[in-house]
Design brief:
The protein starts with a strand and ends in a 7-residue tail after the last helix. An 8-stranded antiparallel β-sheet has the order 1-2-3-4-8-7-6-5, sandwiched between helices. The longest helix is centred in the middle third of the chain and has 14 residues, at 64-77. The protein is built from 3 helices and 8 strands. The chain is of the alpha+beta class and 177 residues long.
């Protein structure tokens, strides 16, 4: 069951759009876009997207690792700057509530804008095996008005950047708990 809202990084998010169930070559995708109050999926400053990928057959389980590798390659092809690709499996991850026997993958990437009128977009993506061959994906996206390498470096060095990263690592999928 999908809740009507959930909390992330101190903000309440509610369902802004339910994507039609999408059958793929080897899976079915169930996806939602979540927005904060007063924003829409067309006009947002932050957006959370959740995907649940389920295999078409039980004998063809999906893999968070394979999905993560595909996302990195696809985003690089679309012009993203890859900031981080990690497997969250360090011994201290247990203290963060992570099952290091089934660690999530973390991807952080930036789609830089070449137009001063259009903000850049940074994405924090957590990908995890969800059991029964399923994969959960949770993406936090934020639009940023950055115009120089110095501004970009300042974002990466900020405590807010680290807090968003860690919040996503520790977050629970907003449904199917």
């Amino acid at each position: 069951m999908t809740p009507s809202s959930f909390q992330f990084w101190g903000n309440a998010y509610s369902v802004g759009y339910v994507m039609p169930v999408q059958p793929g070559a080897d899976h079915i995708s169930e996806s939602y876009e979540w927005v904060t109050g007063g924003e829409s999926v067309e006009n947002w400053s932050t957006l959370v997207t959740s995907h649940r990928l389920s295999p078409l057959t039980p004998d063809s389980p999906l893999s968070a690792e394979a999905y993560a590798q595909n996302v990195v390659n696809l985003n690089q092809q679309q012009g993203a700057i890859i900031i981080e690709t990690s497997i969250i499996n360090a011994p201290d991850a247990v203290e963060m509530g992570i099952d290091i026997e089934n660690p999530p993958f973390l991807l952080i990437y930036l789609f830089p804008s070449q137009d001063a009128e259009v903000p850049s977009e940074i994405n924090f993506q957590k990908i995890e095996n969800a059991g029964d061959g399923k994969v959960n994906i949770l993406i936090y996206a934020e639009r940023l008005a950055i115009g120089s390498q110095e501004e970009f470096d300042a974002v990466l060095a900020s405590p807010e950047f680290l807090d968003r990263r860690n919040s996503l690592i520790m977050s629970r999928f907003p449904y199917y708990t």
